Amino acid sequence: MKADAVKIDDDVYWVGALDWDARDFHGFAVPGMTYNAYLVFGDEKIALIDNVDSGFFPEFWARIEDAFKQEGLDNIKIDVLVQNHIENDHIGSIPELLEKVPDVEFYCTAVAAAGLKKQIHSLENQEMKPVKTGDTVDLGGKTLTFINAPMLHWPDSNFTLYNEGGILFSNDAFGQHVCESKRFDSDKSDSFMELHTRRFYANLVSLSSMLVVKKAEEMVEAGYLDNLKMIAPCHGQIWTNPQRAIDLYTKWATGQCDDKITVIYNTMHHSTQKLAHSFCEGIMSEGVEVKMHFLQFSPESDILADVLDSKAIALGVPTMMNGPYPKVGNLMYYFNATNMATIGDGKKAVTFSSKGWAGGAIKKLNESLSVAGFDVLEDDSLDIKFAPNDDELDLAYDLGKKLAQIVKD
Ligand code: FEO
Asked: 328-338 and 361-371 are packed helices; what angle lies between their axes, rounded to 10 degrees?
């Protein structure tokens, strides 16, 4: 097959793969994905940074062939392979790659090496050189420095800095799950970049927010960011404005939120839905931004992205069998797993519900939100019977207004 490499800097090429059809990545709803890999041509050695998912090797190899052609080189020779992370989306093509270039020096963190041998059994006897922060590889006129980044987002995660070019190959960090025909941040709007970077952060990085702050400080202190020109992640668009990416990560990692409320609701017979809509009107009356998520249809990954930069949430779920209508259980799992309610000053939460007979949803919702770290305004919970009448809809409106005023204070 034919596929072009994209030159992103002198002697540096994007040689990744475009997964136009991906819609789900282990529960993360995606509008397609990219698996970014990069070639750096030194005077003596050529390095390949990262790989692509299984099934994409023909496209990946075609781009590698094209990069060599653009460099005026007839024979493909890869001397150095850097594997920054070993989740499946970045390693599937390694066996096919090694059939083509078996003599590479293979660099990754020590835990990545151990994990890779368990993930891909044919690599059991592959020699791998473990890298620590500050280790370098000389490509001839170009050097790569490794920066271990454990838990950003897995224990094996690593960044690789191409020093002379000022390019940070950050693997998952600073990525976005999108699939676009152009490669750079400047090819898309700022709001596109902010939204998709936030979705990625909320779902995959927020758990490690404290480590994001620490790693940023460590990298500044070591001077790794002094000449930074580009951040080239393994997913999505390449940042030609790296400071924008760093500013966004700093904002979310320190829990800076907008005057924004995310309302999440589900419904059985439209009663809780009516409360949610009225609640939303109350928020809007105060000029506060509100995002509405109908839980039955909104992917959890979208909800988390909005909760991340909201000061408060409202959760409306009807009662079914003495507890909350069940789909909310998935969301609670993600609230707990991502820890996002506890970053910075935390987030407030209120709950509302409609019930037929005994009720029970509110108590359980409040307990679960508290466990997840939300500051639950329990005394403000709204629990109504059957369909809300006008007075009850007004109560929901007033509650939305009250929460908006709290958010503005
Ligand atoms: Fe893109 Fe953690 O894999």
From this structure: 20
Does ligand 1 come within 6 angstroms of the Cβ of 156? no
Q: How high is the pLDDT of residue 368?
A: 98
pLDDT category at 242 given cuts 50, 70, 90 is: very high
* Interval between CA 117 and ligand 1 midpoint (Å): 17
Ligand 1 center to residue 89 CA distance, Å? 6
Order of strands, sheet of 46-49, starting from the edge strand that comes earlier in the sequence: 6-9, 12-14, 38-41, 46-49, 80-82, 105-108, 129-130
Cα 330 to middle of ligand 1, angstroms: 21
Model confidence pLDDT, tens digit, residues 168-220: 999 999 999 999 999 999 999 999 999 999 999 999 999 999 999 999 999 99
Residues in the chain: 409
- The reply to whether ligand 1 has any atom less than 6 angstroms from the CB of 177 is no
How far away, in angstroms, is 363 Cα from ligand 1 center?
37
- The number of the ligand 1 atom at minimal distance from the alpha carbon of 172 is 1
By CB atoms closer than 10 A (0-12, 13-18, 19+), residue 378 is: middle
Task: List pLDDT tens digits, range 71-81.
Answer: 999 999 999 99
